[in-house]
Amino acid sequence: MKKSISLVFASILTLAIAGCGNNSSNTGNSSPAGDTADAAAASATAAPAKVTKIIVGTGTAFPQVCFIDENGKLTGFDVELLKEIDNRLPEYTFDFQTMDFSNLLLSLETKKIDLVAHVMEKNPERELKYSFNKEAYAHWRNRIIVAKGNDSIQTLDDLKGKKVLAGATSAQAQILENYNKDHDNAINIVYQSGTANDTAAQITSGRVDATLAADFVLPIIDPKNQLKATGDELSSADILYVFRKNDADSQKLSDAIDGVIKELKTDGTLGKLSTQWLGADVTADSVQ
Predict the structure, then answer these.
(1) Mean pLDDT value of segment 115-133
(2) What residues are paired with 130 via a beta bridge?
(3) pLDDT at residue 1 greater than cutoff 80
(4) Which of 16, 72, 103, 109 has the most CB atoms within 10 Å of its CB?
(5) 112 by DSSP, 3-state: which?
């Protein structure tokens, strides 16, 4: 009888141990499953976010702003600034597409490019069709440019009946066109190709009488110091990037760029780039 009881007790003890073993095994199996789930979550978190490609439209014929250097490299203030902005926006990658200045805005409209970078001024005419970012990355003033020794021209009225050089679709051309609307086309506007770099030669030779230009541009277009700025400023403008209007993706990009430009102003990078490429810091002022 005692032997039977001992056998029964031994059986129960064996079952109990087996049960504990099963529980231990289940617990052990749940741990790897949990680790796998955690690893998957960590992997998902570590995976790189989607990078959006942005086609930047710019030119090749604006010395110090966007041009091809002696090594065949696209560079200049606008180009190097956008490269720095690109470095600080990991969710985007910028790809530059070059074209004549007069084609930039049309290419933006037709979605061949996503933004225009060509030291573009915001003016009422452009605001009707395009969107601009809010944080200006440069600011300057437009004045009349004539040959040294020419003291007869001080104002737009003095340009009546004279030939004035201007880039097609440029902000300077817009100033002249607005004047002509109110003065019976009194100024003979000579539209210049965006690839032409002979402004000084045209003025000093007498082929044209004057041009309009932003203040920092004079030493760039006149390396031999043959020209001068004259009269009061004709306009003040913030320099911004141009985007498609009423486009959610464009607005998201615009806002992101604004954030980086603020950083570049704060840490001094923007001013350094301006001085390096344009010869002065033209980034401090703003008309806004």
Answers:
(1) 93
(2) 244
(3) no
(4) 103
(5) coil
Burial level of 132, CB count in 10 A (0-12/13-18/19+)? Answer: buried
* Percent of the chain residues past pLDDT 70, beyond the cut: 81
> How is residue 282 annotated by DSSP?
-
For residues 26, 30, 32, 36, the Cα torsion angle rounded to the nearest 10 degrees is 150
Q: What is the predicted pLDDT for the residue at 151?
A: 96
Query: What distance in Å separates the CA atoms of residue 44 and residue 49, rounded to the nearest whole number?
Result: 10
**Model pTM?**
0.72
Q: Is 163 exposed, middle or buried (0-12, 13-18, 19+ CB in 10 A)?
A: middle
Residue 96: phi, psi to the nearest 5? Answer: -85, 135
* Dihedral, CA of residue 83, residue 86, residue 92 and residue 93, to nearest 10: 30
Torsion sign, CA atoms 242, 57, 238, 184? negative
From residue 188, alpha-carbon distances to 63, 161, 165, 211 in Å are 26, 6, 9, 11
How far is it, in rounded angstroms, from Cα 196 to Cα 214? 17
CA-CA distances (angstroms) from residue 161 to 43, 48, 180, 209? 71, 62, 11, 10
